[in-house]
Amino acid sequence: MQIKSSFNKIDNVVISGGTHGNEATGVYLIEEWEKDCSFLKRNSFETDFFCSNPRAVDLNLRYTETDLNRCFLDKDLEDESAVSYEELLAYKIKNNLKKNYAGKTTLLVDMHTTTSNMGINIMCDDEAPNLLLAAMVKHRLPEVHVYCIKKSDRTDSCLRSSGTYGIGIEVGPIPQGILRHDVVESMRKAVAAVLDIAHEINTGGADETPFSIEYFSHIAEVAYPDGPFGDAMIHKDLEGRDYEILHPGDNIFYGAECGNIQYEGKEEVHPVFINEAAYYEKGLAFSTVKKEHREFKLLK
Ligand SMILES: [Zn+2]
């Protein structure tokens, strides 16, 4: 089945960095653009950018009280008992976006990094406009992985869901809190591709010929058998092998007491976010995705 969609004219592209305060790449680029934003200019829309969690950035922490990128569900924003710094910040960001872009079509692009060996990823929900946009980025930059998660409270709680359209860019591997030239370049390249595609959609320059790409759909999260920093760690056979094939029976954990532990799923899957530092606090070791292959088409 073909995945097809049209887009409203995009009035504003809004780029955020620092949603996780210890992901320095996005913060660096926001600061670069504050000095000179000519890189972001396309003449069919305005491009704005902001640092979304400055307090966490100052402290070099993912967040200070709660993960900002899980605070954007409308029902949570209306919850009067929501009092953490990030819950209030999400409320403020969403209200500002509503006020500043009333009646406009916005594309929100949220910049993230991962400690996992995942390369450049476009993160999106599985609904046509966002997934088509992500597919168009992959069509232009074949090295990109498209990682989609079924539209749900999980995707709607992300900052990127606050735009008419929204995608995340996730680049790795890079440790938390540090800068790497190659990762900055990858992020810049992905941002430029998104801006070029938005401009082509607006001006009728985008190719409407159907095209096929591979992308990945989220299946599940896999927890450490005994919690984070227990006996089991990611097995050396799995380490760094994001997006490769994981077969039933392959080694996934090793521990001095537990020995080798194998993957007990019934089917081949692709592991991602392997040994992601940010997920230790949740006890998550990696996630699994499945490869999909579809035809996409941009409608006028
Ligand atoms: Zn992040």
From TrEMBL:
One of its GO terms (molecular function) is metal ion binding. Residues 212-291 form the AstE/AspA barrel-sandwich hybrid domain. GO terms for cellular component: cytosol. Residues 11-197 form the Succinylglutamate desuccinylase/Aspartoacylase catalytic domain. Zn(2+) binds at residues 20, 23, 112. The keyword Zinc applies. Binds 1 zinc ion per subunit. Gene3D superfamilies: 2.20.25.160, Zn peptidases. Its cofactor is Zn(2+). The keyword Hydrolase applies. Pfam families: AstE_AspA_cat, AstE_AspA_hybrid. PANTHER family: ASPARTOACYLASE, SUCCINYLGLUTAMATE DESUCCINYLASE. Belongs to the AspA/AstE family. Aspartoacylase subfamily. NCBIfam families: PRK02259.1. This is Aspartoacylase. It comes from Desulfovibrio gilichinskyi.
